Fold this sequence. Notes:
- Chain A is of the alpha/beta class.
- Chain A is built from 10 helices and 14 strands.
- In chain A, 53% of the residues are buried.
- Chain B is mainly α.
- Chain B has a two-stranded antiparallel ribbon with strand order 1-2.
- In chain B, strand 1 and strand 2 form a beta hairpin.
Amino acid sequence: xxxxxxxxxxxLSVMAGTAWAQTWTGGDDLPTSPLAxxxxxxxxxxKPYDGAEPANVPDRKGKEITVVDVPKLIGIGYxxxxxxxxxxxxxxxxNVSVKTDGPTKANIDEQITFIDNYITSGVxxxxxxxxxxxxxxxVLKKALSKGINVVGYDANSTPDARxxxxxxxxxxxxxxxxxxxMAKEIGEDGAFAIVTSTFTTPNQARWIxxxxxxxxxxxxxxxxxxxxxxxxxxxxxxxxxSTLINKYGDELKGLFxxxxxxxxxxxxxxxxxxxxxxxxxxxxxxxxxxxxYVEKDCVTSVVLWNPVDLGYAAMHVxxxxxxxxxxxxxxSVTAGKLGELQVINGSEILLGAPFTFTxxxxxxxxx
Amino acid sequence: MAVxxxxxxxxxxxxxxxxxxxxxxxxxxxxxxxxxxGTVNPRFLGENNLISMFSGNAYIAVAAIGMSLVIISGHIDxxxxxxxxxxxxxxxxxAVGDYPIWVAWTVPVLVGVVINTFxxxxxxxxxxxxxxxxxxxxxxxxxxxxxYTAGTWITGMPPEFFIAQARLFGIPAPVxxxxxxxxxxxxxxxxxxxxxxxxxxxxxxEAARASGLYPERVCVAAFxxxxxxxxxxxxxxATQLQVIQSTVPPNLELTVITASVIGGVSILxxxxxxxxxxLAAILFACISSALVFLNVSAYWLRAxxxxxxxxxxxxxxxxxxxxxxxxx
Lengths: 367, 328
C-alpha cells in the first residue's frame, strides 16, 4: 500500500510539473534597457557624481606619481592580466611608477592590511579591486583623508569610499554581445536554450531579462526554447545541457551558458553528443576553460571583458584624476588607445563593449 | 528473523518481494517514469538520453555502494561529497603534473581508502559516533580543499586521463563501472564472510560480538571499502568533463545518502542491498532528466527526493513493525 502510494507520489509530482510548464524564462522583472541594434552606445542617464573627494590633495598635475595596485588576490591569471594592463599604461604614460601587491588569496582582512601599510609608506594613488564592498570602505576613506587618489576596478566599494570605479561591463552590454553572437552563429530564426545558475541569482537573472528585451528588439525571430537551472555545478550543468540536446534534437541550434561554469559544461555536452558545428555555444566564460572547445572549433565566441584593457583603463583614470583632468561632473575620460570612455552611474567609467574571445585571440590570455 | 522460519512455505515470487521489496518499488518507479515521460515526449527514451541518464549519474551509484556498506554496518558518512571533491582534485593535479596516467588513477583511490580507514578507526576504537567524526571530516576536507586550491580550476589534463569518456560498444565506461561494481558487491555482500558480517554487526553489534565477530574490525573494513568506492566515484566524476572545479560538489553527500536510503538500506543498519542503492541513483537520474523534459524547475528534484525519503523511511518502519508483530 505504501509502495503504491510511493509510485503515485512520483507520478503525481511529475504530472503536477507538466501543468506548471512553460512559465519561466529565468529573467527578473526589473525594467530593462536594451541597447541599439547597431554599435551606438547607450545615452548615459544624467546622475550627479556620487564618489568621494580626497582631502588636502597636493598638486600632482604632470608630476611623477607612485601608485600601488591591490587586487583581490595576486598570482591568478585574471589579476595577472589586469596588472599587465596597469603596467602597460604606466609605461606608456611615462610619469607613473606602479607596483601590484596584495594577498595570495581573496581575503578582505589581508587586503585591508596591505592597503593600510601602503598608506603608511606613502603613495600618491591606490588602485583596488575589493574583496568586499563594505568592509574595504574604512581603509579607503583613510587613504582619501591623507590626500591619496583612490580608484577601483573590477569589484567596487561603496561609492563614498573611492573617487571613481572602472566598470568592466553593464548588463545590457553583455546581453547585446551574447545575443548578437548567437544570431550570427545560428541565424535570425534559430532556436536556442539557456543554461543558467538559478532563477534567483541576481546577475544571471538581470542578464537574461536584458537578453530577452534585446532579442525582442533586434532579433525578433529567434526562438527562445527554455531556460534550465544548473546552479554553479559542473556536472549538473553538463547533465542539464545534455538533456536539452536530447530533448529538442535537431530543433536546438544554440545554447547560452550564463555562468563561467555552465558555458564550458554546455560546450562539453555538445562535444560529447557529437554535435559540434550543429549546436552553437555562446556564453560568459573565462578563456582557459574554453580553450579546448575553441581550438577544436566547437565554440566560436566566448563573451567576457578583456582584463588587460580593464587594468589599462584603470591606470589611465588614475592619471587623469591625479592630473585633475577627470573631475566630478565629467561625462567621459580619455584612456590612451581605448579612446574616450563614458562616465555612467555618477562615478563609474564604463570599459566599453564586452570582449569576444575567438580562436584568433584566445591563446593570448591565461586566466 | 521471523521470515526465515516460514520461507519454505512461501512461493518464489513472495520470497522475492520479501527479500527485495524496496528494490522492486524503485524499479517500478523507474519503469513508471520512463513510460509516463516517454509518452509525453518519445525523445526521453531515445538512445542518447538513456545513455546520458545512466552515464551522467553513475558516479553517484558507485559512491552509494560504499555508502550502503557504511549504513548497513550501522554508521553513516556525511563527508563523502567533500572526500570525492578532494580525491577528484588530487587526480586532476597529478594528471596535469606530468605523472603517468595510472598514478593519477590509482593514487586518489588509495588516498580515499587511507582517509576512510582512519575515519573508521576513530569511530570503532575511540567510540566516537560516526556522524560526529564525519561531520568533522566534512569541514576538514572542504576547508582544506578551498584553502589549498583557492577555487582555481584544473584544466589541460592529457586526453588519456578521461576514463569516463571512453566508450565500449557505444556505451560509456561509467555504466560498466556502475553495473560491474554493483553486481560484484551484491554477490560479495550475500556470500562473503565479511559481507555477511557487515549485516550482522549493523543489525545487532552485541549479538554479532557474542557470535565471534569483531564489530570494530568490521566497521574499519566497511569504511575502508567505502573509501575505495569514493575513490572510483571521484575518478568518474573528475574525468567526465574537461574541467575539474576543485571545489566540493554541492550537496553530493546528501544525494549519495539519499540513494542508499531510497534504495532500501535501513538508516538504522542491518538491512538493504547495493542493488537498491544503484537503482535509486538511476531513479534520480531519470527524475532529473524528466524535469527538463517536462519543463519543471530543477528545484523540484529536491522536493521529490525529500518526498521519496519520507515515504521510504515510513515504509521501512512499517516493515519493521510487521516483522516485530510476526515474531510475537
